[in-house]
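User: My advisor asked me to double-check a structure prediction for Protein NRT1/ PTR FAMILY 2.7-like before group meeting. I don't want to rely on an old file, so could you generate it fresh from this sequence?
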Amino acid sequence: MGRNNVNSSKSFDESFRVDYFLYIFPLGTILLALTATLDSLRPKPCEVGSTSCSPTPKVQYVVLYAAIVLATLGSGGSRSTLSTLGANQFNKPKDQGIFFNWFFFFVYGSSVVASTAVVYVEDNVSWKVGFFICVGASVLGLVIFLMGSRFYTNSKPEGSPFTSLPRVVVASIRKRKEPLPSACDDFYHGHSHVASKAIVVPPSKTFRFLNHAAIKSEGDVKPDGCTAKPWKLCSVQEVEDLKSLIRILPLWSSSFFLGTTIGVQSSMSILQALAMDRHVGPHFQIPAGSILVFSMISTALFLTLFDKFLFPLWKKLTAKSLTPLQRIGVGHVLSALVMGVSALVESKRLKVAKSNNLDQGSNIVPMSVLWLVPQLALVGISEAFHFPGQVAFYYQEFLTTLKNMATAMISVIVGVAFYLTTALIGVVRRTTNWLPGNINKGRLDNVYWVLVVGGVLNFGYYVTCAWLYKYQNLEGAEHSDSPSDE
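Assistant: Sure, here is a fresh prediction for Protein NRT1/ PTR FAMILY 2.7-like from the sequence you gave:
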């Protein structure tokens, strides 16, 4: 894999941003550990049968919510920037694609450990020991990062895309009546181009309305080449950044349904597990909340197989590398298949419940919870295809100033999708009797079949968007997910 020794002058210093968030995350976990350790930060327990319990002091709420906010901010911020920093260490798109595969492998692998070993410690030893294990892991991660920070290839910080993008919209509206010039020099190409007298190119012809934002007018540019009115004049580079984002938005929006199906699957699988036989052997019972570990294990396992087996096999059979859009498409297909398998398993579970007259109560259905493993494994395979594929696609297609948003785009998808999951479940419960309090009396299989239909329609939407999309980085389209073939 090639090391990238060329610094980009148009993006944030990713190392600084990761460093910043990696400091925040241990602080949040330390506060969480203290809420489980110090008596002054824990609510006093109420005696059994007591009618008067001491109210929880407000300071305890403040510390608890502050800990959650800091841990969430640190985790989300470091995860979204670590992937970009790591990919920036390589020149070739195919090496960057391999990095994203392994990045997600460690994300899912650590989730497996957190959902099993740490949960076991919290249930069988104490919460404070479990929290301090998290503190130790976060501090260790920070130390390892700092030990290698001087070897990283970093980009020079220069502005924020979150400021430049709205500036393009405002500037194009303010200059909407000005005719588009034919000469390339009549567009503003930024202070760096003026200073270096580099070769300039005109803005692209797509979304031509936005090109108005780069038209130079009298008084817009200072003698040194800087903009005098930032909200009235933008560089061609900034205009192209916004166009790049707009072109990708339709493909990005198709992933919301993928995240929604994962959210429904996660929530409903736990309910199904609670109503099934969770014993494995005479002495062990799988916790209902840990059933999702099978999905994480499946994702981690298949991510390890991609680079050494699946991708080389694909290239051997087709003589072409698997493109990011094809990889995301496979994830769409598997997502719809997962819902179909889930519906069939739930139909069988309901039949067993009815044959044992359990639809009138809340008894456990005499059916092993391991029946849920195939659908959860398929969920993991689906995620192994489309999540790393999306990050690789956004990273290779975004211009330099937007590459930091590659992983953040996935985080937004997951966040919005889980809100949509809550809304969808709420609508189903209000309009149908498919999801009653006792799922043995419901029709969860119908919910899954509806998601199958939605998945097929969403896949059609995705195929249409992918067919209309034109790769901006042709090299990345051909090699980003393929293994090294030197």
